[in-house]
């Protein structure tokens, strides 16, 4: 919300920081620096100069009070407060009324003051080509760098839509439809408060929402963001791209465009001039000579009427008759005055038109005299003859030029044809050369392939020799024969490979069986430890017989050891047990059964034990069963291990027999065999490759030999002797010569045709030239002149046509300004008048018209007065009431006189001070633009100057050499710097006007305006923008990385950010 200052008569008292409640916002505030508080004045009257010294207001350029105006305000403040300290307090009523009015005018001119509006961040979700993009901006200058299509122009459009609303036909609805477009922004207003809003495409008030609540924003926030703004003003003033910058700058230089009124009409002291105009209007309303509507004239007229009425206390018949006669006479005089005024008005208009037409009359008279001189100079051609002669001369010149061109073309063709050499012998050998050229690539490929195959065969032979040496062969001449001597038959090879695979399987089985035995032993030992841990305590009572159980266990253990020795070591079964292992197994099972029976008896005898003891006994029994089961499993695993060992012995016997049959060393193991088999396989593969390479080499040799023979035969026919190793090079050279001869043969034919064509065209042109010559000779004879004098007739006719055309311009202007008269009548009247006398007549008519208008006004007032007198004579009031009204009217006249004198005095003083100031000051906007231009061009151009008035006004550039330059004399880059200086100065003036009008200021957006700047001037532009950015937020979009890198070396308030690269098109 805008803070407005209190009236000027209040005191601006700078106070130190203390806790207080702000008078205007109502919010508690505390600051670490001085600020302004507004307090009403004390009873002691202060002069304006005193409170200006006490205020110590910061000297902001837009807030400085002019010293002459301060001196004037000192006088006004003394009057408004009742005078200085030594002035008496008695002030008349008119003066007090004037003081109140002056105070109101000063209050109306009081400026608003506050921070500038800042755009903190903008979030597009979605908008244009951006689906979810956030841009955070600094307080001063922010340089936004992005590649082409990164979204800089989209952000500029979003800024305009944020302030002015999204139009119905928006170009930014191609990624998402218009109803889904959203622009979210954080904005700091002039009063320092920050608002977060969302711009939508809906109708008001739902088009601008509070980001926190999604409800429409408060009315004051809407007014702050949108008041007095539209898309055109934002995009042409506050959001400039390079095109609008150049277009707007050119319009400003020609006195046009949206900023023209600011650039050409801005003056320092604009507010003082407004006050002067108001004082002048006030004085004019109080009294103006010969103006019956002024206050003093009306008041004095009323007093005279009352005075006359007082003298005539009674109406008489003679007075009524005299008033009636007076009325009739005045009305007759009024009609006569009106007729005279209408006649003078018509005469004044006619003389004004004649005076305005005088320059065109002078032009018409001069052109008419020129035309008459041309007509008197001699005969002329008709328009058709002039056209025929002009066209003939032009065509003859063209024919001469074309004949020279065709002749030169023919000569050049002959020279080119003579310089071409053709070898007929080579051209005669065309079939042989074409065949050799066609087969050359194949022959070269075969020759190269044969060479490559020889090298590859040598490499493969070396690898085979190395493999044979690793197989134990060292003294041999032919690797293939040596390989055949140590080769193993395929059946023997398959048997050995199968035995090697069986060996790997047996080794795995042996390892697995040994692991199973070890695991079974570990499980048996664990189960035995578990049984011992869970054994029944000895305190079971006398009924239990542990000796029987122990004896049964001993018999079982003896049998178990015998079973193990028999299975593992192959020991014989004891005679007392039986003849074989089966009897031992039966005895072992019987022993186990005895142990189990004894254990069952113990369980029966322990039937009276507690539940805990019975559970323990059950656990022990289960553990013993587990031990027995695991021992049986251990026996089975040990049997499997023995079987695997037996198979290994059988495999060894078979392997030894197979290696002997294959003629291999007896000590060769499986690993050695696998390595030998791999080497034999590699050697066999290399031998096959060697045989294949040799076979292909033999196949490629004949093709190259056949081509060499054909090339040698061609050289012999051409009478040249060429060595075999140089046949290819010789043929390449011969083929080049052949192609050159064939090309020269074709070129010679083309040149022959061109020469013939050029000679035929030259002959045609000479025939056409003869026709035109005959036509011109005939035309000269018809006009009675020689052929040489025909040129004189042409020039005379052209002068005549030009004179007629020049006469049409002023003649048309005269007809347009005087449609009621013919051209002859008008020129006759103008010829009879003198320019100076016409001006004198116009002035005299103007004076007479003014006097006639005054006479009409005066007579009209007399008629009204006579009518009123006649109507009021019969009903006149008494003398007492008339005397009282006369006294009041006299007092009113005196008040108006005093008020008028005071106002005229104030107007005179203020006008003098303003005139003195304006004589020493120039247009501030042009001064500012000139200062910016000087900085941007680094002193090459130092200022701007306005020329002309009204619609003919324009600007010129002042160089450092004090010479004026038009924009056409500037380079593109310098013109861009000029337009940028003008635009910045104009926009800052608009910002000041908006602030003065109580509106929010607007951030400035610039899109690639530095694209035509060189590096040094771009750096100067950044420094200038950063300086302006200290008071006004500026966002500069650019696609030049150097501009972004420059930001780090300028003001601390400047910052730079980079946009993401555009998405890749797939």
What would you say this structure looks like, in words?
Helix 11 (317-376) runs antiparallel to helix 22, helix 14 runs antiparallel to helix 21 and helix 17 runs antiparallel to helix 18. The chain has 1066 residues and is α/β, with parallel strands linked by helices. It is flat. The strands form five sheets. The protein has a five-stranded antiparallel β-sheet, with helices on one face.
Q: Which secondary-structure class do the elements indicate?
A: alpha/beta
Mean pLDDT: 75
Fraction of residues in β-strands:
5-15%
Number of distinct helices: 29
Could you give the order of strands across the largest sheet? 6-5-8-9-10
What is the global morphology?
flat
- Radius of gyration (CA) equals 62 Å
| Fraction in helix | 55-70%
Q: What is the CA–CA distance across the termini?
A: 50 Å
Biggest sheet record: 5 strands, antiparallel
Count of DSSP strands: 17
Low-pLDDT residue spans = 1-74, 77-91, 107-114, 538-544
Quick structural summary:
It contains 29 helices and 17 strands. It has 1066 residues and is an alpha/beta fold. The protein has a 5-stranded antiparallel beta sheet with strand order 6-5-8-9-10, with helices on one face.
Question: What structural keywords apply?
Answer:
alpha/beta, flat, 5-stranded antiparallel β-sheet, 29 helices, 5-stranded parallel β-sheet, 17 strands, 1066 residues, disordered N terminus
């Amino acid at each position: 919300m805008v803070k407005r200052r209190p009236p000027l008569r209040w005191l601006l008292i700078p106070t130190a920081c203390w806790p207080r409640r702000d008078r205007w916002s109502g919010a508690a505030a505390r600051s670490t620096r001085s600020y302004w508080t507004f307090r009403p004045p004390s009873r002691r009257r202060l002069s304006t100069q005193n409170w200006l010294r006490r205020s110590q207001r910061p000297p902001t350029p837009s807030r400085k009070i002019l010293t002459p105006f301060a001196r004037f305000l000192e006088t006004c403040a003394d009057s408004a407060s009742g005078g200085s300290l030594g002035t008496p307090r008695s002030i008349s009523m008119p003066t007090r009324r004037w003081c109140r009015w002056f105070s109101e005018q000063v209050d109306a001119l009081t400026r608003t003051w506050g921070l500038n509006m800042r755009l903190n961040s903008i979030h597009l979700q979605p908008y244009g080509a951006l689906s979810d993009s956030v841009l955070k901006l600094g307080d001063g200058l922010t340089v936004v760098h992005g590649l082409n299509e990164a979204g800089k122009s989209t952000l500029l459009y979003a800024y305009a839509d944020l302030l002015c609303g999204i139009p119905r036909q928006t170009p930014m609805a191609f990624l998402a439809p218009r109803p889904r477009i959203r622009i979210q922004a954080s904005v700091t207003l002039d009063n320092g408060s920050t608002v977060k809003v969302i711009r939508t495409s809906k109708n008001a008030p739902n088009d601008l929402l509070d980001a926190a609540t999604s409800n429409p924003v408060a009315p004051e926030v809407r007014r702050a963001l949108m008041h007095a703004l539209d898309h055109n003003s934002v995009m042409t003033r506050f959001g400039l791209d390079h095109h609008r910058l150049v277009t707007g700058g050119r319009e400003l230089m020609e006195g046009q465009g949206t900023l023209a009124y600011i650039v050409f009409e801005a003056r320092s002291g604009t507010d003082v001039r407004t006050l002067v105009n108001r004082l002048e209007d006030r004085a004019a309303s109080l009294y103006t000579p010969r103006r019956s509507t002024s206050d003093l004239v009306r008041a004095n007229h009323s007093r005279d009427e009352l005075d006359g009425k007082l003298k005539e206390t009674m109406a008489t018949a003679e007075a009524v008759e005299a008033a009636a006669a007076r009325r009739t006479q005045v009305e007759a005089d009024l009609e006569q005055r009106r007729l005279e005024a209408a006649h003078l008005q018509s005469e004044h208009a006619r003389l004004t038109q004649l005076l305005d037409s005088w320059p065109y009359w002078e032009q018409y008279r001069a052109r008419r005299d020129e035309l008459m001189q041309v007509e008197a100079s001699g005969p002329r051609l008709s328009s058709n003859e002039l056209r025929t002669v002009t066209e003939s001369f032009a065509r003859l010149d063209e024919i001469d030029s074309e004949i020279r061109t065709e002749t030169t073309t023919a000569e050049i063709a002959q020279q080119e044809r003579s310089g071409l050499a053709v070898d007929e012998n080579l051209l005669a050998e065309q079939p042989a050369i074409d065949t050799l050229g066609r087969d050359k690539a194949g022959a070269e490929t075969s020759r190269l392939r044969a060479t490559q195959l020889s090298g590859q065969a040598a490499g493969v032979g070396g690898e085979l020799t190395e493999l044979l040496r690793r197989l134990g062969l060292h003294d041999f001449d032919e690797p293939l024969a040596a390989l055949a001597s140590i080769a193993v038959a395929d059946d023997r090879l398959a048997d050995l490979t199968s035995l090697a695979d069986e060996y790997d399987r047996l080794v795995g089985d042996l390892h697995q069986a040994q692991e199973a035995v070890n695991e079974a032993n570990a499980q048996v030992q664990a189960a035995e430890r578990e049984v011992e841990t869970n054994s029944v305590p000895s305190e079971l009572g006398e009924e239990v017989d542990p000796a029987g159980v122990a004896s049964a266990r001993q018999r079982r253990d003896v049998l178990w050891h015998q079973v193990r020795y028999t299975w593992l070591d192959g020991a014989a079964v004891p005679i007392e047990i039986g003849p074989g292992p089966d009897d031992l197994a039966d005895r072992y099972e019987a022993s186990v059964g005895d142990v189990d029976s004894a254990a069952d008896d113990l369980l029966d005898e322990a039937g009276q034990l507690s539940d805990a003891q019975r559970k323990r006994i059950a656990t022990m029994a289960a553990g013993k069963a587990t031990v027995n089961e695991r021992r049986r499993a251990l026996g089975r695993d040990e049997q499997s291990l023995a079987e695997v060992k037996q198979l290994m012995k059988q495999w060894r016997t078979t392997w030894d027999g197979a290696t002997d049959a294959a003629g291999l060393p007896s000590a060769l193991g499986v690993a050695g065999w696998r390595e030998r088999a791999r080497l034999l396989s590699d050697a066999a593969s290399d031998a096959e490759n060697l045989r294949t390479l040799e076979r292909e080499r033999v196949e490629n040799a004949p093709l190259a030999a056949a081509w060499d023979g054909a090339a040698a035969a061609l050289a012999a026919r051409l009478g040249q002797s060429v060595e075999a190793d140089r046949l290819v090079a010789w043929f390449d050279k011969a083929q080049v010569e052949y192609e050159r001869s064939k090309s020269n043969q074709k070129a010679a034919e083309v040149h022959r045709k061109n020469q013939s064509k050029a000679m035929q065209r030259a002959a045609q042109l000479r025939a056409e030239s003869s026709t035109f010559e005959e036509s011109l000779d005939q035309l000269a004879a018809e006009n009675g002149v020689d052929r040489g004098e025909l040129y004189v007739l042409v020039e005379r006719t052209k002068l005549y046509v030009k004179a007629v055309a020049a006469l049409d311009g002023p003649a048309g202007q005269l007809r347009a300004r005087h449609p009621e008269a013919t051209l002859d009548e008008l020129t006759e009247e103008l010829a009879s008048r003198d320019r100076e006398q016409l001006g004198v007549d116009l002035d005299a008519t103007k004076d007479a018209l003014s006097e006639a208008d005054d006479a009409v006004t005066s007579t009209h007032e007399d008629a009204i007065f006579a009518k009123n007198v006649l109507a009021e004579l019969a009903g006149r009031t008494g003398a007492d009431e008339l005397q009282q009204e006369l006294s009041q009217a006299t007092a009113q006249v005196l008040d108006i006189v005093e008020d008028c004198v005071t106002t005229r005095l104030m107007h005179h003083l203020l006008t003098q001070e303003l005139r003195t100031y304006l004589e020493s000051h120039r247009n501030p906007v042009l001064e500012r633009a000139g200062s910016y231009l000087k900085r941007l061009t680094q002193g090459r151009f130092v200022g701007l100057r306005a020329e002309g008035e009204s619609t003919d006004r324009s600007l010129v550039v002042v160089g450092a050499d004090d010479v004026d330059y038009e924009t056409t004399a500037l380079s593109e880059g310098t013109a861009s710097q000029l337009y940028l200086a003008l635009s910045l100065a104009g926009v800052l003036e608009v910002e000041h006007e908006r602030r003065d009008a109580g509106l929010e200021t607007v951030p400035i957006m610039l899109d690639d305006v530095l694209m035509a700047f060189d590096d040094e001037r771009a750096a100067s532009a950044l420094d200038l923008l950063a300086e302006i950015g200290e008071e006004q937020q500026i966002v500069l979009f650019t696609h030049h990385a150097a501009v972004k890198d420059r930001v780090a070396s300028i003001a601390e308030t400047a910052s730079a950010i980079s946009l993401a690269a555009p998405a890749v098109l797939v």
